[in-house]
Structure formats: structure tokens, C-alpha cells
Amino acid sequence: MLKPKKDFSCAFLNAAKNLNLATKITLLRIAIIIPILMLLSSATKIACFFACLLFVVAALSDFIDGYIARRCGQVTTLGKFLDPLADKFLICTVLIELCSLGWIPAWAVHIIIVRELAVTGLRAVASDYGIVLAADTFGKWKTTFQILACIPLMLHYAYLGINLHQIGVILLYVAVFFTILSGCNYFYTFCVDIRDKEV
Out of 40, 51, 149, 182, which could bridge 172 as a Cys pair, Cβ 3.0 to 4.6 Å? Predict the structure, then answer.
């Protein structure tokens, strides 16, 4: 009978006692969400531009904290938990705001959010059984296209005669495709790993 591990919460609390540089950058990425939403909610061209600029900074910080964590040996349980969570907070809150402005279809946002919640829950269950569901290729493409879609969607207005909004919508549909594909792949991988452990 497969039994879940009980030491994850203890390791998490111990890691939370000492925040390293990589984790602080991750927390900063979460904090940046507030000014992004405040600027985006005004829906003016200049405010959307600066909101997009902050979004790009936040997205780049994801690569920076990951690099620092690996390079300086700062990979922690807390960091592993917060890093993907910060990405989800950033992208989902922006998409919700864009939806409230009527700039993107609600169904696309629903699919992305439901998938993120489902995979996050699945990872929590998997970790209890000692299974690590690492980011796969489809998941990386999903995140990449979500970020790429958010940039022109946040800018929204035409620049130099280019319809950035339409470009963003197309990228969003591609992101939805990879969102569904990666979500299905995570559940398939989990089922295979559980079956292998029970054999």
C-alpha cells in the first residue's frame, strides 16, 4: 500500500526561516502584480505601456531567480513552492484583468485558470507520495506562449499601425492549446508514476 510522506511541511517551514536572494526575487515578482493591475485597470495607452513594462520585468525575474538558485546553490523547498506559484499569480491575475476589460474571451481565461489549479493540486498530491512532477516541454511552451500573449494584449492599442491586440489573441489561443495539452500530460505522467510505484 502506497503511503504519503509526512515530512514535506516540516521541510517547507524550515526553508521559510531563511529567505535567500532567489526567494526574495520571487516574492518581489508577486509584489509587482499590484502596480501592474492598478495601471492596467485605467486602460489608458500610457498606463498599459508601463503595466506591460512591469510585466516584462516580472517575467524576466523568473529566469533570474532560477539562475541564482541553481548557480549559488540556493534551491530550497520554499523556492520550489513559490516560484511556480508566483508565475501563476502573475499570469492569471493579468488575464483576469484583461477579461474584465473585455479585451479577451472569458472561456480562454477559465481554461487556463482551471488547468493551473488542477495541476497545482495534482503536484501537491504527488509530492505526498514522493513523486516530483517536473515541468515538461509542453508546460514550458505553455508558459512561454502565455507570457508572449500577455505582452501585446496588455499593450492593446495599435503601435505604428500594428494591431497588437489581434496578435495577442492569436498567441492566447496557442497558449490555450498548450495549456490543455500540458495539463493532460501531467495527469498521464502522475498515473504512470503511481502505477509504477505500486507494482
Answer: 149
Torsion of CA 113, 116, 117, 121, to 10 degrees: 170
pLDDT of residue 94 exceeding 90, the answer is: yes
Helix axes 77-100, 106-128, angle to 10 degrees: 160
C-alpha 97/C-alpha 34 separation (Å) is: 12
CA neighbours closer than 13 Å in the CB half-sphere of residue 40: 30
Closest CA to 114 of 126, 106, 124: 106
More confident residue, 172 or 22: 172
pLDDT given for residue 192 in this prediction: 87
- The pTM (predicted TM-score) of the whole model is 0.82
Q: How many CA atoms lie within 13 A of 65 on its CB side?
A: 28
Cell of 53: 513594462
Phi, psi of 159 (to 5 degrees): -125, 125
